[in-house]
Design goal:
With 96 residues, the protein is mainly α. The chain has helices at 4-16, 36-50, 64-80; strands at residues 58-60, 87-89. It has a two-stranded parallel sheet.
Amino acid sequence: MTTTFERLRALLIKDYHFAPESLTLEAPLEELGIDSLGVADLLFNIEDEFHVSLPNQPVALLNIGDVVRFIDELIDAQEGDTVPPASFISPLSPAP
């Protein structure tokens, strides 16, 4: 079975042309060159790849591990009909 991290990693390699060795759970999105606009784009790709719907509430996604946990929470929430986690808030902008 393919893990969320493996699927996300494949998506980042395919769509963003990252070197596989640069994609660890601890890798900060900002250091990878994924700014707030890039994260918004990534989230649309995640919706398509993982067949999830993003909620309207913000959440901070600072590194690859945060994104993996966010995806897993979305999948769990949507499979279990629970309240989904908050959606993205840029680490580069002030919190609402």
